[in-house]
Structures are given as structure tokens and as C-alpha cells.
Design a protein that fits this description.
By secondary structure, this protein is an alpha+beta fold. The protein has 1 helix and 11 strands. Helices cover 15% and strands 35% of the residues. The chain is rod-shaped.
């Protein structure tokens, strides 16, 4: 099951003068005709744009925060495994075993699942007990744990 990342809303606080701070991540300098948005990154301030109104600057900060959250999710979330129809593509050959494909999880027409493989050049599926019939989909197995995890 994939965990969903929920971004906390940005909370703005006046800090005296004409400045709004947000969670030590953004601040807005408010001038008479416009607003400047800055973002704190890696210990320094980065100018993020000039806006006509405070609301526009806040919306830009929300967008930047969302983009940052999405980049983080992409970095820490591996591609979700999915069932691949056998008609779409077959699993790759096993580079360590020249006689068969890599072992994968398969599901049959009737919903049974097996850890199986195909002999090289064959459409027939096998598991440790023999032939697996009516395979409709396959999915890559996860990597084994590292170092006794």
C-alpha cells in the first residue's frame, strides 16, 4: 500500500514592519506597489519573484511548496509495482541464468498466484512444482533485504 504524503498548509505570521514569515521557509516583503517573495534554501534566502498583491505571493509560495513536496515524494517513493499483462510485454531474461527468464510473481485466469519463470524462447510458465497454465499477468518481485534487515 502506498503512503500518501499530505502537505501541511502554509501559515503566515506578521513579523513587524511590512513582512510576513511562513514556517521559516518563505517570507514576503510588502512594498507600497508590490511584494517580493523569498524562499529559505540551504541556509540562504533565494528570491522567488515579484507579485502585485500579497495573495499572489502567497499562492506562488503554496505552488513552490507543493512542487518541493512532489519532488521529495518522487525521490523517496520507488515506482509502484503493477501487474503487467503478458500481451503487453514479457519479463526480461535472467542475466545470471542463460536458460530462463527472471523469476516473477504471476497470476492466472482464475486468480491463483505463483512465483514463476519461463524457459528461454518459450511462452510456457513454470514454478517449482511444474507448469503454470493460463497466466494473464506478471509483476516483478521486490529486491531481497540487504544485510539481515
Amino acid at each position: 500500500m502506498t503512503k500518501l504524503y499530505r502537505m501541511k498548509p502554509l501559515v503566515w505570521e506578521p513579523t513587524g514592519g511590512m513582512r510576513l514569515n511562513c514556517h521559516h521557509r518563505f517570507y514576503i516583503n510588502i512594498w507600497s506597489n508590490d511584494c517580493e517573495l523569498y524562499q529559505y534554501q540551504d541556509g540562504s534566502d533565494t528570491w522567488a519573484g515579484m507579485y502585485s498583491t500579497v495573495d499572489e505571493a502567497k499562492a506562488a509560495a503554496e505552488k513552490l511548496a507543493l512542487e518541493e513536496a512532489l519532488r521529495w515524494v518522487e525521490e523517496v517513493t520507488p515506482e509502484a509495482p503493477r501487474w503487467i499483462p503478458v500481451g503487453e510485454r514479457m519479463q526480461p531474461d535472467d542475466p545470471g541464468d542463460q536458460s530462463c527468464s527472471v523469476r516473477v510473481m504471476v497470476v492466472t485466469k482464475y486468480g491463483s498466484t505463483y512465483c514463476a519463470w519461463r524457459s528461454k524462447g518459450s511462452e510456457e510458465w513454470h514454478d517449482y512444482d511444474g507448469t503454470v497454465s493460463l497466466v494473464t499477468h506478471w509483476m516483478a518481485l521486490p529486491q531481497p533485504p540487504k544485510g539481515g534487515e
